[in-house]
Amino acid sequence: MDNRPIGIFDSGLGGLTCVREVMKIMPNENIIYFGDTGRVPYGTRSSATIVKYVRQDINFLRKFDIKFIVIACGTASSAALPHITTEYDTDIIGVVEPASKLAVNATKNGRIGVLGTSGTINSGKYSEKIGNLNPEIKVISNACPMFVPVVENGYSDSKIARMLAEEYLDVMLKNDVDTIILGCTHYPLLKKTIQDVVGDGVTLIDSGAAAAGEAKRIMEMHRLLSGSNEIGGAKYYVSDTVHGFEELGSLFLSKKIEGDVAKIDIEKY
């Protein structure tokens, strides 16, 4: 058993949807969360810049003697994870592989859609992972660059969100996908809108929740789960103002944020 905290990070607040699932399935774990709100979004950055940011994010989390790290960001998982896994002695996972596995198991007609940032879609990592798992599956990917700012600004349940969803999902409907990966951890806040557009016959895969489940599986295997009987706590760090974090972050967590929130200078790492 290991009572050290789990580290989770994202380019902004979206990774809190992964935190929510970790709290649900591993309630005794302590969590350190970092949201790189000063540099959000990662999806429009170059691969080299994303790798640099991810190294800094991980270096910051390692200050806390982290036992396990989840990159709760589709863009960072796609662009940076393959480059940095051998640089650290801490277990690190992203969202791409866990979500791909769930989608392959869920599809009945062999047609999987992937929604993500431009960085995630352009990397081709979801298509690559799914192809490795089952080369007969057809993958239809579409970048949704406006989804993150809509969510980050509190417009998840709005006419704007619905209009964007209809545009982004049109290609999915035309290709008769029966499973869609929400390839950015912001997108679960749009789940109701997306489901309304595609219908109940399409399965939506929450990439953050998938990563949380994979983290639990690996931690059980490596005997890293907490031995505490107490409910774990969480501390939150951001790279921009903490103003508004508790209010908007509570939407991602689906509950009031209770814990320390602090601003840090991520460039020092």
Automatic annotation (TrEMBL):
Q: Which residues form the active site?
A: C73, C184
Protein name as catalogued: Glutamate racemase
Q: Which InterPro entries match?
A: Asp/Glu/hydantoin_racemase, Asp/Glu_race, Asp/Glu_racemase_AS_2, Glu_race
> What job does this protein perform?
Provides the (R)-glutamate required for cell wall biosynthesis.
Determine the domain of life of the protein's source.
Bacteria
Kindly report, in one word, the top-level EC class recorded for this enzyme: isomerase
> Which reactions is this enzyme annotated as catalysing?
L-glutamate = D-glutamate
Q: Name one Pfam family in it.
A: Asp_Glu_race
EC number of this enzyme = 5.1.1.3
Q: In which pathway does it act?
A: Cell wall biogenesis; peptidoglycan biosynthesis
Please list the GO terms describing molecular function: glutamate racemase activity
Question: Member of which family?
Answer: Belongs to the aspartate/glutamate racemases family.
* An example Gene Ontology biological process: regulation of cell shape
What high-level taxonomic lineage is stated for the organism? Bacteria, Bacillati, Bacillota, Clostridia, Monoglobales
Q: Where does the chain bind substrate?
A: D10, S11, Y42, G43, T185, H186
